[in-house]
Amino acid sequence: MTTIAHISDLHFDRVDPAAVRALPAELHSFRPDVVIISGDLTQRARRGQYRRAVEFISRLPSPRIIVPGNHDVPLFDSLRRMIDPYGRFARKVSADFFPEFRNDDVHIVGINTACRLAPRWNGFWKDGKIRPIHLDELRRRLPPGLVRPGQMRMLVAHHPFIEPPGGHVHGIIHGAARALPVLESLGIDLILGGHFHLSFHGDLRARYANLSRPMLNLVAGSATST
Questions:
Q1: Which of 2, 180, 195, 204 has the most CB atoms around its CB within 10 Å?
Q2: Quick check: helix, strand or coil at residue 38?
Q3: pLDDT reported for residue 120
Q4: If residue 7 lies in a helix (H) or strand (E), which one and from where to where?
Q5: Domains plus CATH for the chain?
Q6: 173-182: buried (b, 16+ CB within 10 Å) or exposed (e) per residue?
Q7: Considering only CA atoms, which of 134, 187, 122, 137 is closest in space to residue 158?
Q8: Pairing between strand 34-38 and 4-7?
Q9: How does pLDDT run across 22-40, given as a tens digit for each residue?
C-alpha cells in the first residue's frame, strides 16, 4: 500500500512558527512514499520567501511532487509577472512543471494552474486555469490504453474543481467543464489541490453532469500559514 502525504498553501513568510517546526517530524513519522505540495509555497513570490520555503521543504520526506499556486507568481512586480512569471519557482524549486511519481499503486502527475493573467480580475489575479497544453501533456503521460490494473491515477492542481461548502464558487478553476471529460478518458480518479485554506472533498459528478464515473477532488487546507 502506498502512503501519500498531501499538504498545501505554506505561504512563507506568513507562517505559524510552531507549525513550521512540527510538520517535518510529523510527516517523517508515518514514512510516506511521496509528499505532495499543491501550491502557494510563498506569500508574494519574493526571493527570501522562496529561500525559506525551500529550506523548509528540504526537511520533508522525499520524493516530492510540487506545483505552483497563484501566490508563487509575483503580484506587485508587474514587469516580472509579465515576462518571467514562473522563473523564481523554476530556479528555486523545480523547473519541471509536470512533476510525476509512479509505482504499482499510483501514477501521479502535477500541473501548473497559476496564471500570469488570470481569466477574471478580482483584485489579486487569484484564479487559475487548466489549459490545452496541460491536456496534451497529460495525454502523453497518461495514455488511456495503458491503465495498469489496480493502479490509481491522480492529478495535482492548486486550484480546485469544486467549491467548498458554503460558497466561493468563483474561485474554482477555469476550463474545468471542458477539461474533465478528457481527464475522465485518461483514467484520472482523484484530483488533489488547495487554494481555499479549507479541507474538503467531493465527487465531481455533483457539479459536472458530463462525467459518467466517480472522480474525486480532495482539497487540503493551509499547512503552515496564519
A1: 195
A2: strand
A3: 59
A4: strand 4-7
A5: 4-219 (3.60.21.10)
A6: bbbbeebbeb
A7: 134
A8: parallel
A9: 999 999 999 999 999 999 9
